[in-house]
Amino acid sequence: EVQLVESGGGLVQPGGSLRLSCAASGFSFSSYSMNWVRQPLGKGLEWVSYINSDNDTIYYADSVKGRFTISRDNAKNSLYLQMNSLRDEDTAVYYCARTRWYIGSPYFDNWGQGTLVTVSS
Amino acid sequence: SSELTQDPAVSVALGQTVRITCQGDSLRSYYASWYQQKPGQAPVLVIYGQNNRPSGIPDRFSDSSSGNTASLTITGAQAEDEADYYCNSRDSSGNHLVFGGGTKLTVL
Q1: From CA A74, how far away is CA A79, in angstroms rounded?
Q2: Predicted confidence band at B95 (pLDDT cuts at 50, 70, 90)?
Q3: In contact, A5 and A97? CB cutoff 8 Å
Q4: Nearest CA in chain B to A45
Q5: Which of B43, B82, B81, B96 is nearest to A110 (CA)?
Q6: Which residue of A has its CA nearest to B88?
Q7: How far is C-alpha A107 from the geometric centre of its chain's CA atoms?
Q8: CA distances (Å), A10 to each of A6, A49, A90, in order?
Q9: What is the band of B1 on the pLDDT scale with cuts at 50, 70, 90?
Q10: Pick from B31, B54, B95: which is nearest to A109 by CB?
Q11: Which tens digits make up the pLDDT trace of A53-72?
Q12: Chain A nearest-CA residue for B36
C-alpha cells in the first residue's frame, strides 16, 4: 500500500523557517516524481513545487520561488520542503503527492494527509 | 489568479447527471486531471488523461474535453459525491502546474 506521511508543520513567526518532510513507503520512491501542494484553511488547492525522480528537474510556483527549496533523498525514501522567509500567506495545510504522467500531462495519484503550517506572530 | 477556471458551485438532484467544467488555454495542449475532496480529507484522484479512472473510482465518473475546456461528468450523482472538485494540469509555459479554483458540488 502506498503511504505518504508528512511531518514538520507547526507554528512559526513571519520571517522564520520550517522544514517539512514526507516519508514514502509501499512503492519504489526513487522512480517517481513528487510534488508539494498546499491549501489554506477553507480555500482551494495551490501547487507549490515539483521535483522529478532524478533530482534534476525542479519547478516552483511564483509565490514561493526564491524562498522555498524542494529536495529528496531517494536512499531515505523522503521528500523535503525547506521554507524560508515565511509569510502570513504561507499558512496552509501542506500535502505531498506522488506524480505520474500521461502523455506529458501530470496527475497526482497518491496524497499524504497533510501537515499544517501556521505563520503568525 | 488561477490559469484554470472553474465555477465555484454546482448543484444536482440525487440520481441526476452533472457536469463540472474547467477552462484554460493550457488545456488545448495538456490533459486535465480531476480530484475530489471531502471536508477534513486529502484530495483523491478521480480522473486523469483521456477519461482514465483509478481503481476504486465508480464508473459514473467520466471526463471529456473540447478546445480549452475539460469537463468532469457524474452520471447518476449519489449523496456521497457531494464534495469539492478540482481540476489540475500544466500551465501554458509547461513548467508550472496549476489547479483550478475548485467547484463545490451539492447533491440535493
Answers
A1: 8
A2: confident
A3: no
A4: B99
A5: B43
A6: A107
A7: 15
A8: 12, 20, 12
A9: very low
A10: B54
A11: 999 999 999 999 999 999 99
A12: A45
Interchain pair A111, B101: CB under 8 A: no
The amino acid at A54: D
Query: What letter does residue A10 receive in the DSSP assignment?
Result: E
d(CA A96, CA A20): 10
Q: What is the tens place of the pLDDT at every residue in B2-48?
A: 589 999 999 999 999 999 999 999 999 999 999 999 999 999 999 99
Please tell me chain B's helix, strand, coil percentages from 3-state DSSP, rounded to the nearest 5: 5, 45, 45
Q: Which residues of B touch A102 (CB under 8 A)?
A: 31, 48-50, 52
Beta strands, E only, chain B:
5-6, 9-12, 18-23, 33-37, 44-47, 61-66, 69-74, 83-90, 97-99, 103-107
